[in-house]
Amino acid sequence: MLQTLLIFGQSRSSSEVFVEIPERGNYVVYLDDDFAGSAKGRFRFYEVYRSIPTLIVMQDSQEVFRKRINVPANTRMLFSYSKRSGLRNVVNLPVFDRGQYALDNWDRSFNNNNNNGDEPIGHEVMTTEEHTKLMEMFKREPFEQNQLKLIKAAVKTNLMTTKQLITFLNQFYFDSKKLELAKYAYPYIADPKNFVAVTETLDFQSSKDQIFALMNKE
């Protein structure tokens, strides 16, 4: 009976999608119309039949990420998601190993592959050309509030390096605007270890202390 079920499962070419969200928060993950919640930040979808489903990440009932993913047949796909790096495909594994259903090898797979250098597929680092064009758009905006909105929208689409962010911070005169942008952009910075350089754009120690406090939360 078990062998019959295994053969039946293979013939239907179903796949599995596992998503890990290591960041703390109230998350729910959707794969098309199916959804999964998890107190431990691990979301599992079994019997995935569509080859290009839409994966959506919700935090506190707000959509924070959406991406159509390619799911090969008979494959267990392991993803990792974070606001800073977007969605990363950690590893793909066969659902069946030598005719037998492969047991849940989540921990071993993440431990072996979590630092393999894959590029995030949800967010990519802003190129020099993109940065130049964004700066041109920024300078055409006559009002600071619109300039802030522009950069906030940009960092949600492309990761930004600390150096790139500083070029925009230097366009503002007051610490208050610099802090507003820096705090918003921090989760989308590609090189957070260099983020301390942002303090060099600030005039007051109290402003710098807010950046230190932000970094110490990580």
How many extended strands? 12
Mean pLDDT, to the nearest integer, reads: 82
The biggest beta sheet reads:
4 strands, mixed
Class derived from helix and strand content? alpha+beta
Q: Approximately how much beta-strand content do the residues carry? A: 25-35%
Task: Note down, in words, how this protein is organized.
It holds the Pfam family DUF4476. This is DUF4476 domain-containing protein. It comes from Pedobacter steynii. By secondary structure, this protein is of the alpha+beta class. It has 2 domains: 121 residues, Carboxypeptidase-like, regulatory domain (Immunoglobulin-like); 92 residues, no CATH class. It contains 7 helices and 12 strands. Strands 4-1-7-8 form a 4-stranded mixed sheet, with helices on one face. A hairpin with a 3-residue loop joins strand 7 and strand 8. It is elongated, with a radius of gyration of 21 Å.
